[in-house]
Amino acid sequence: MRCNAETPTQDDIDAGIANIVVCFVPPRSAVFVIFTIRQLFETQKPWLKGRRRSAEFQQSTVLNLFGAARRPADLRVERSRKPAVRLSYEVSMDFWINGRAVSVDIDLRTSLLDLLRDQLSLIGAKKGCNQGACGACTVLADGERINACLALAVQYQGREIVTVEGLADSHGRMHPLQAAFVEHDGFQCGYCTPGQLCSAVGMAAELARGVPSQVTGDVAAEGIALSRDELRERMSGNLCRCGAHNGIVAAIAETFAEGKNAPLDLPARSRSGFASAEAGWRAPSEEEKVA
Amino acid sequence: MNPFTYTRPADAAAAIHEAAHAGARYLGGGTNLVDLMREGVERPAALVDVTGLDRTITELPDGGLRIGAAISNTALAADRRVRTRYPMLTRAIVAGASAQIRNMATLGGNLLQRTRCLYFYDDAARCNKRQPGSGCDALEGFNRMHAILGASDACVATHPSDLCVALAALDATVHLEGADGKRALPFEALHRLPGDTPERETELRPGELITAIELPALPMARRSTYRKVRDRASYAFALVSVAAALEIEDGTIKDVRVALGGVAHKPWRARTVEALLRGQQPSEEVFRRASAGELSSARPLRDNGFKVELARRTIVAVLSQLAGGRP
Ligand SMILES: Cc1cc2nc3c(=O)[nH]c(=O)nc-3n(C[C@H](O)[C@H](O)[C@H](O)COP(=O)(O)OP(=O)(O)OC[C@H]3O[C@@H](n4cnc5c(N)ncnc54)[C@H](O)[C@@H]3O)c2cc1C
Ligand code: SF4
């Protein structure tokens, strides 16, 4: 074990062996205990029982602190850069993300959210609770909204993933919903916003497909109007701690008022087509990977 | 999270073969299993992803439906045949979790999701379900969410599913496939009460795969519903929930189905309510007597006595609503 108080290098992080230092002061003790993240996770010290969540939190906090001290570009993991040490359970995977084919070598345990944020620097989707309870990590998979934190990346190979970074059109113009969020003050701190946006796009598609909700009067009837009650219930998987809900509801209601906007500009976004969930797994061809 | 291997078989036979390895687990949408792996409660050595298996809904000759276990909760709730013939099932599904989770979650995974007892998640606590023989911190602890029916001194956890409550009321059949071949179980026989072995939650044999659910033809289910009572209006687990269908002919109750959620270690088919109601003339008084009969065996804990009255009232409210012709 190395015990370095210095910033870990990107190679260390890539290799998954970074001795990222976690310091915490045990109660009634002035001694700093320094452990590597890997030891925290891999040894089951009895006194650490029940502390895994806080260890994870410290890990991300420390990473954020280090990240903040450096230029963002330094955190970008280059696709060409192979990890120095390959863990035995690391495998090569192919993804479709925001219309582009991506190949990465990652640990099988990587969540879709960690893949996006830590490996691909797509930091729009946020890690809020990391247990499916807040919706900040919402992205679209084959046009359906999902919680990227509960998804193992390996399960989403060959599926069409769209994150908030992929909502703008091919000319970089904001999605109408994004513009409406600005117009209606649909956020304060902005942490839940990428999740709210992706969720609302998925919600509009569900409504168009006739998926009922808990507040739908007659679930057997065809065609559901986007009433305020429907909208609020359907967006209940996305929490906003600032309380910007009124602006959020107004922005979504305006954007998806009857027949106004298609949820996504599908052809521009998608190479494989959003039907791939039914068609099953499809890896990008070599040609597509280069492009 | 412990390391594991991952496979995504294309058919049930291959999945069962893969699951024969020691420590293997089936993986649906992962919304429960991945969370529990992250907490260290589950430590599978191999994940067998079954989301590529049968996810279709097919008509049975008698008018029932056969549903592949890999179907997403959303797709099941939105199917037109399900919405019109079994509205309680659609309503139960959309009352659960969030739209994002329902999009990810499979039917099979929803059936086998594990309890939300906080002590089960917390590996610093004693829990007979997580670690048999260690004790149960919920008995004397914070047990507001826990069971009032059918619990034991070993475990007072509840089954968290909404979907399953409707399946219990509808007399569904669970189709299983394992190394020893195929078999079918009545839905009510799938989940177990805790007894002395709360770690054994279902009658599934090791490595057995849920392949499909069958819903019998049940015309009375067209007039059925699901009501869930919880701490907030959406996106929370049930304190109490009721799935019910009611058939009234010539002013008397010809048939009735009632199942409860949030009250027991398994989806609770309220057979006593049903027996007390058949042949009666529907009235609030009759509904009240029937629900009191079901709850007479309730054994509330320190914090959850309110559930007894809540369950009684919710049963009465739902049956009154159905008797009044409102679905
Ligand atoms: C924040 C949050 C809130 C929630 N709220 C609710 C709620 O209000 N109501 C509700 O009902 N649920 C709720 N849930 C739970 C959710 O419905 C379940 O997590 C989901 O249904 C599980 O399905 P899955 O496919 O993701 O299962 P997984 O997590 O993939 O698997 C769950 C279990 O099922 C087993 N399994 C999966 N498929 C099969 C199969 N075919 N055969 C045999 N075994 C199989 C797995 O091995 C595992 O043990 C909530 C979940 C979260 C995270
Ligand atoms: S109620 Fe059951 S799950 Fe909860 S702590 Fe007790 S034994 Fe464990």
UniProtKB/TrEMBL annotation, chain B:
<dbReference type="InterPro" id="IPR016167">
    <property type="entry name" value="FAD-bd_PCMH_sub1"/>
</dbReference>
<keyword id="KW-0285">Flavoprotein</keyword>
<dbReference type="InterPro" id="IPR036318">
    <property type="entry name" value="FAD-bd_PCMH-like_sf"/>
</dbReference>
<dbReference type="InterPro" id="IPR016169">
    <property type="entry name" value="FAD-bd_PCMH_sub2"/>
</dbReference>
<dbReference type="InterPro" id="IPR036683">
    <property type="entry name" value="CO_DH_flav_C_dom_sf"/>
</dbReference>
<keyword id="KW-0274">FAD</keyword>
<dbReference type="GO" id="GO:0071949">
    <property type="term" value="F:FAD binding"/>
</dbReference>
<feature type="domain" description="FAD-binding PCMH-type">
    <location>
        <begin position="1"/>
        <end position="220"/>
    </location>
</feature>
<dbReference type="Pfam" id="PF00941">
    <property type="entry name" value="FAD_binding_5"/>
</dbReference>
<dbReference type="InterPro" id="IPR005107">
    <property type="entry name" value="CO_DH_flav_C"/>
</dbReference>
<dbReference type="Pfam" id="PF03450">
    <property type="entry name" value="CO_deh_flav_C"/>
</dbReference>
<dbReference type="InterPro" id="IPR051312">
    <property type="entry name" value="Diverse_Substr_Oxidored"/>
</dbReference>
<dbReference type="InterPro" id="IPR016166">
    <property type="entry name" value="FAD-bd_PCMH"/>
</dbReference>
<dbReference type="GO" id="GO:0016491">
    <property type="term" value="F:oxidoreductase activity"/>
</dbReference>
<protein>
    <submittedName>
        <fullName>Oxidoreductase</fullName>
    </submittedName>
</protein>
<dbReference type="InterPro" id="IPR002346">
    <property type="entry name" value="Mopterin_DH_FAD-bd"/>
</dbReference>
